Amino acid sequence: MRVELLCTGDELVTGLITDTNSTYLEARLFDLGVKVERVVLVGDVRPDITQALKEAASRADVVVVSGGLGPTADDFTLECAAEAAGVPLEEDAQVLDWLHQRYAARGLSPNPSALRMARVPRGSEPVRNPEGSAPLVVMKLGGAQLFFLPGVPREFKALLEGEVLPRIRATLDARPERTYRAFRLLRTVGIPESELDMAVAPMGPRHPRIVFGFRTHAPENHLKLMAEASSQSEADAALAAVEVECRQMLGTKLFGVDSEAYAAVVLETLRRAGATLAVAESCTGGLIAQQLTAVPGSSEVFIGGAVVYSEKTKSAWVGVPPDVLARHTAVSRETAQAMAEGVRDVCGTTYGLSVTGYAGPGGGTQEDPVGTVYCALSAPGVPTRCERISVTGDRDRVRLFAASHTLEMLRQHLLAAPATP
């Protein structure tokens, strides 16, 4: 099945917002064993959208269109669809009723602009939107099935999950000579994408039914495995065989599969160990705590943290001795170690993590230039460990990789001694 995605809106082509719908759709279709062949971004220009629809429909079996279904003057995607199909727009009584119901629930009446969302191309199928006003619209254009979805990510995802993906899955299942697929996403940290590619390359000849792919989601790198065969059992078996080999190759660099998120994996590893954690952050400004507390139930093992951005708070809140700061500065191995030990002692946790460094663009010294970060782990029964890393890039990238490296120190420690918190 050939699938393309067409995203409309000036805000996308001018960089005002980031297109997240494409990546979400690509990931969900990959779950079905379908690779998106093309993603096209088009601004709010009627002839451009009309032409893009015709071209996509001439190439693809399915085209998912995002954006331009709302009530404002620049929402004219369905007008372009009607023009491309050579049919008029017509007010749909059912959509009109949905709009009145939705507005009435909020004590309002739809204005004339809102009622524009009830106009759909003749012969199309509108589907109620559970999260918004603009409906999903399904229509044929040439030999392609087109799905028009609102661009708002919440609404896009709800309609994609509830309507579009089930229909695509049904179409796949109905094909008489279909190719069966099985997939796995292996999530790694600490291994560059180029090294991942080199490590996987020799496996290709041994696993001819596997399509290897790669995705970078900094600071993670993901290995995509898709097996293709003439039956589901054969695809499942081919996937299982290559996954075993990949797991052996990746070792502890592999932290999760499919939808498993890094912070959730770290917290679950802590929970299984019966351990607790506190963090002291300087240059990351609470990023580690933010990542951990984004996971429901994190309070079971994550006790708390301190953003100790100044020397004063490093001493007052996590007990870094003033003479350590005076002798070694706030960005040093000694200060990082004292921060980790101090926050662990103050919070009474099994482990203490700390991070301090120069995120830039200012600061840094000749010995420790911008991008230098010290990450420390305080654990029971062993000396406090500190690692110095150097991260290139802007301030956000330094902070992101500093937080990741610090958490990875803890994860690797837990994997090496899971029964000894």
TrEMBL record:
InterPro entries according to UniProt: CinA, CinA-like_C, CinA_C, CinA_KH, Competence-induced_CinA, MoaB/Mog-like_dom_sf, MoaB/Mog_dom
Pfam families named in the record: CinA, CinA_KH, MoCF_biosynth
Domain MoaB/Mog: 4-170
Parts of the chain that traverse the membrane: none
Similarity comment text for this entry: Belongs to the CinA family.
Matches recorded under PANTHER family: NICOTINAMIDE-NUCLEOTIDE AMIDOHYDROLASE PNCC, NMN AMIDOHYDROLASE-LIKE PROTEIN YFAY
HAMAP family per record: CinA_B
Protein name: CinA-like protein
Organism: Myxococcus xanthus
